[in-house]
Write a structure and sequence with these properties.
Blueprint: E1 20-32, E2 36-42, E3 47-53, H1 59-64, E4 70-79, E5 94-105, H2 122-127, H3 129-132, H4 136-158, E6 162-163, E7 181-183, E8 191-193, H5 199-207, E9 212-221, E10 232-242, H6 246-264, E11 268-269, E12 276-278, H7 279-285, E13 299-301, H8 314-321, E14 325-331, H9 339-351, E15 358-364, E16 368-371, H10 380-390, E17 397-403, H11 405-422, E18 430-431, E19 433-437, E20 442-444, E21 451-453, H12 467-471, E22 480-485, E23 488-495, H13 500-509, H14 514-520, H15 522-528, E24 535-538, H16 542-549, H17 580-585
Parallel strand pairs: 3-5, 6-9, 11-18, 12-19
Antiparallel strand pairs: 1-2, 1-4, 2-3, 4-5, 7-8, 9-10, 10-24, 13-14, 14-17, 15-16, 15-17, 19-22, 20-21, 22-23, 23-24
Helix pairs in contact: 5-15, 14-15
């Protein structure tokens, strides 16, 4: 028999009444009622209420003991009185009368409370992460993460995938984010890189003749932190399949995500079969390639309206003549909203760096008219055309922005979310997945004006690059896709370019000659030259999946030992300085800045 415990702290039930038991765990909470002391004992599994009366010789010692001290108790299980039954915990019908106890681990004064999930300063939470992880909510999040990963592994195996591990020490990548570099002791002056993703290795696995691969892969990128991205490292479900088209990848991922989200959440899925939205359409309708489809608001382009002679809103008309676009958002049935509702949205847009949002509300007397600051600038016929174009009705309101395409997409995307939240249109009890497809292969760099890859340079184009494509490379679409849920991008993926000749053509458009491609991507080009199958894949982020399932806004809440915003581990004091002997062994000399 285990000398510390006969049961876990969630196991004792009415059937155990009368039993003598041992329990071990942390003192979660104490309540002193004078003659009776109540102690909530907590372990990984749950909580058991324990009691001791003043007559017991251990009463005064337990009364003084610090919360979070680890103790073993020896006691007897008894029924709780009817009025004290607690249905919120598994052991709520019983309690344990303490006979003896033993301290297994002492505890100093706590820097943050454990029994409460109240907000606490990030610096304290991360420095004392081992205490933070004892708190109920985050403890459950980390357990959820473990269960999700186990479930995904099991489902991937059922789908015929084999799990392989790819190298952690590899070569530096010339594309993507900054690498974390590791000096080589045995090869002085040379460095390994930690993998940003197993991209090239998983393609090489397909070239090696394996058909379906996956792993829960650690990835390392020297990037700044965001709410949905950890600095330093993260984990993804990396998968790749041979002899597949785009639809085959979609079918696997949809089955997996639908099963996972239905298994671990009570929220409803808006779609079991995920909508496919072309990138160009997404940027017009949502202003973003990460649309939240729980939001019913749609953005419409109404630029042409401002070429009409019966529209006299001169500010927008002049901008349109100089090449600007006008896009609008329809807010349904807002005729009874106070002026402050509209003015607040206009002010918000200015705070976001835009020039504001022009607005009016459709009304009808004899003819269609518009109520609002700019309503008078539109004729009845122009208003009717806007209504037809935007599928709006009398009583609806229009919010408009004018500007260059990138600026316009940014503010209308934000405004779409802002208006929906203000009108309480988003169903928080829903998951809405979608695919964004048909990404352009290339884009023009805003600074250099040169053509560069817009997404993944190893993706298959949707054409064989005929002379017409080469004249208009910005029109070339790729078999690239993103999976998005509730406005959060879970992953990018692609059907890979497995043809070396086609790859050379694509890289030449982006300014690389054959020699540069051979030097920078030698392993990949060489492997593809020895009989590569058509293949494709994707890599949904584990951290973001769990973040959605746990209903958390910050990825830190589902990561066991995250870094802070400055990529520092406050608990282990990393990164840290190393001594001169270590540097000498690695043939590294540090030049300190003056």
């Amino acid at each position: 028999m285990n000398k510390y415990r006969t049961h876990n702290c969630n196991e004792l039930k009415k059937k155990d009444v009368g039993s003598n038991i041992f329990l071990a765990g942390w003192i979660n909470k104490k309540r002193d009622h004078g003659n009776l002391l109540f102690i909530d004992l907590r372990d990984n599994y749950g909580i058991t209420q324990c009691i001791i009366d003043k007559e017991n010789k251990n009463f005064s010692d337990l009364e003084k003991i610090q919360l979070e001290t680890v103790i073993k108790i020896d006691g007897k299980v008894v029924n709780r009185s009817k009025e004290t039954i607690n249905q919120d915990i598994d052991t709520g019908e019983i309690e344990v009368v303490i006979e003896n106890f033993e301290i297994l681990g002492t505890c100093k004064e706590l820097p943050l409370p454990v029994f409460s999930d109240q907000e606490y300063a990030e610096e304290i939470r991360l420095k004392y992460r081992f205490l933070d992880l004892r708190r109920k909510k985050i403890h459950e999040n980390i357990i959820l993460r473990s269960k999700v990963i186990s479930f995904i592994r099991n489902e991937m195996t059922k789908l015929g995938f084999l799990e392989f591990q790819t190298p952690i020490l590899t070569s530096s990548s010339p594309e993507g984010a900054r690498d974390f570099l590791v000096p080589s002791r045995l090869n002085p002056g040379k460095f390994y890189a930690l993998p940003q993703a197993p991209q090239q290795f998983k393609q090489l696995i397909m070239v090696s003749g394996f058909d379906k691969y996956f792993q829960i892969a650690p990835c390392f990128r020297d990037e700044d932190a965001r709410a949905d991205r950890s600095p330093g490292e993260f984990y993804q479900l990396d998968l790749e399949m041979s002899f597949v088209q785009q639809e085959d990848v979609f079918n696997v991922v949809e089955k997996l995500l639908v099963k996972t989200f239905k298994n671990f959440s009570n929220k409803k899925l808006l779609y079991d079969k995920f909508p496919k939205i072309p990138y160009a359409e997404a940027m017009i309708k949502y202003g973003s390639d990460k649309p939240d489809l729980r939001n019913p608001l749609i953005i419409n382009d109404i630029t042409e309206i401002f070429n009409r002679e019966d529209v006299s809103f001169e500010i927008f008309k002049k901008l349109v003549k100089s090449g600007s676009k006008v896009r609008c958002i329809v807010a349904k049935n807002t005729k009874d909203k106070p002026r402050s509702f509209f003015d607040n949205i206009d002010k918000w847009a200015k705070d976001e760096g835009a020039s504001g949002l022009a607005y009016f509300t459709f009304e009808k007397d004899k003819n269609i008219s518009a109520k609002g600051p700019i309503g008078k600038f539109f004729s009845h016929e122009a208003l009717q055309e806007i209504m037809n174009k935007t599928n709006s009705k009398v009583g609806d309101s229009i919010f408009m922005a004018c500007g260059k395409q990138h600026e316009l997409e940014k503010i209308t995307s934000l405004a779409r979310d802002k208006i929906a939240k203000d009108l309480n249109l988003i169903d928080e009890n829903t998951f809405a997945f979608c695919w964004i497809v048909d990404y352009p292969m290339f884009e023009r760099d805003d600074v250099t004006k040169k053509i560069k890859f817009s997404h993944n340079p190893f993706s298959m184009p949707q054409s064989d690059l005929n002379p017409k494509d080469l004249k208009d490379p910005l029109g070339i679409l790729a078999y690239q896709y993103d999976i998005v849920c509730n406005g959060i991008e879970l992953s990018s993926g692609a059907i890979r370019n497995h043809k070396p000749d086609l790859m050379y053509k694509l890289f030449s458009i982006a300014g690389y000659d054959k020699q540069q491609v051979d030097e920078k991507f030698s392993g990949m080009i060489n492997a593809l030259s020895y009989g590569a199958p058509p293949h494709g894949g994707i890599a949904p982020g584990i951290d973001r999946i769990v973040m959605l399932l746990a209903n958390e806004k910050n990825i830190r809440e589902v990561t066991m030992f995250p870094m802070n915003q400055n990529a520092q581990d406050l608990m282990m004091n990393a990164p840290s300085e190393v001594n001169q002997d270590q540097l000498k062994e690695l043939n590294i000399y540090l030049k300190t800045k003056k």
